[in-house]
C-alpha cells in the first residue's frame, strides 16, 4: 500500500520524505488555504521535493475552466495528478485530461456508484472520504470494501486512494482491505510512528548504558 501525505506543509513533507515514507502528496484548496502564502510557491516546491504523484486541485467548477487549470497545474511537473471534483463537469474534464495523458484524481467520492463512474471516466485515482462519512454516522470503511470488490471484478486500472483518514486504525483497516493508497494528515503519520513501549524501552536501554559507563568509564561501542 502506498502512503501519501495529505498536506501542503513543506516542513512536514520534508520531514517524512527524509524518512523514506512518502510515495506521494495530496493537496486541496483547504490545505493550501491553511498554509497561507501563494499556493504557486508551495506547488512548485512540493513537486520538486516529491518524486511520486502530487495531486493538485482545480478550483473552477465548469469544464473549460477545469481543463485550463488542469493543464496549467500539470506544468509544475510530470508527477502532477490533476484533482477534480466528482461532478458532471469534473468527470468530463477527467475523461479529456486522461485522454491527453494527464492523470486525474477524482475527489469528494462518497458512494460506490460515484467511484464506479469516476473509474469509467478514466481516473487514475478515486478519493473516497471515509472520515467525513463516519462523521455523519455512515461507515466509511465499508465504502472502501465495496469499491475494492467492484474494482476487482473489472480492469479499470483505477486506484483506490483512501482520504479523510482520522486515525491509525483507519490505516490498518484500509491495508487489510487492500486499498492502493492512504493519504494521511501528518498528525496520523506521527501517531503511527510512536508506541509507549518503544519510548520506555529506549529510556531503559540508555539508563542501563549509563550504569555500565559508571562501572567502566572506558566502555564504548
Ligand atoms: O484529501 C482529502 C482529505 O484531506 C479530506 O480530509 O479531514 O478534511 O475530511 P478531511
Observed structural traits:
221 residues; alpha/beta; TIM Barrel; eight-stranded parallel beta barrel; 53% helix; 17% strand; binds SN-glycerol-3-phosphate
Secondary-structure map with pairings?
Blueprint: E1 2-6, H1 10-18, E2 24-26, H2 29-35, H3 39-49, E3 53-57, H4 63-74, E4 80-85, H5 88-99, E5 104-109, H6 112-120, E6 125-128, H7 130-135, H8 140-152, E7 159-162, H9 168-177, E8 181-184, H10 186-193, H11 196-215
Parallel strand pairs: 1-2, 1-8, 2-3, 3-4, 4-5, 5-6, 6-7, 7-8
Bound molecules: SN-glycerol-3-phosphate.
CATH architecture term: Alpha-Beta Barrel
CATH fold name, please?
TIM Barrel
Across the major sheet, the strand order is: 1-2-3-4-5-6-7-8
Mean pLDDT: 98
Instruction: Please write the string of helix (H) and strand (E) elements.
Output: EHEHHEHEHEHEHHEHEHH
Which ions and ligands are bound to the chains?
A: SN-glycerol-3-phosphate
Detail the poorly predicted runs: none
Q: Which class best fits the helix and strand makeup?
A: alpha/beta
Could you name the CATH class?
Alpha Beta
Supply the CATH superfamily name.
Aldolase class I
**Into which percentage range does the β-strand content fall?**
15-25%
Q: What spatial form do the alpha-carbon principal axes imply? A: globular
Amino acid at each position: 500500500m502506498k502512503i501519501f501525505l495529505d498536506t501542503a506543509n513543506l516542513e512536514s513533507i520534508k520531514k517524512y520524505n527524509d524518512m523514506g515514507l512518502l510515495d506521494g502528496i495530496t493537496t486541496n484548496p483547504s490545505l493550501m488555504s491553511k498554509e497561507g502564502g501563494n499556493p504557486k510557491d508551495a506547488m512548485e516546491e512540493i513537486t520538486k521535493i516529491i518524486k511520486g504523484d502530487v495531486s493538485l486541485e482545480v478550483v473552477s467548477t465548469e469544464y473549460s475552466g477545469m481543463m485550463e487549470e488542469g493543464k496549467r497545474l500539470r506544468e509544475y511537473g510530470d508527477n502532477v495528478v490533476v484533482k477534480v471534483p466528482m461532478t458532471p463537469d469534473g468527470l468530463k474534464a477527467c475523461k479529456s485530461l486522461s485522454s491527453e495523458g494527464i492523470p486525474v484524481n477524482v475527489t469528494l467520492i462518497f458512494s460506490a456508484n460515484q467511484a464506479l463512474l469516476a473509474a469509467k471516466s478514466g481516473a487514475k485515482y478515486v478519493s473516497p472520504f471515509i472520515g467525513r462519512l463516519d462523521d455523519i454516522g455512515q461507515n466509511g470503511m465499508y465504502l472502501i470494501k465495496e469499491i475494492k470488490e467492484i474494482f476487482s471484478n473489472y480492469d479499470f486500472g483505477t486506484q483506490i486512494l483512501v482520504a479523510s483518514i482520522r486515525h491509525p486504525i483507519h490505516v490498518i483497516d484500509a491495508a487489510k482491505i487492500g486499498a492502493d493508497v492512504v493519504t494521511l494528515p501528518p498528525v496520523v503519520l506521527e501517531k503511527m510512528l510512536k508506541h509507549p513501549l518503544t519510548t520506555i524501552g529506549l529510556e531503559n536501554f540508555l539508563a542501563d548504558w549509563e550504569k555500565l559507563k559508571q562501572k567502566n568509564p572506558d566502555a564504548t561501542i
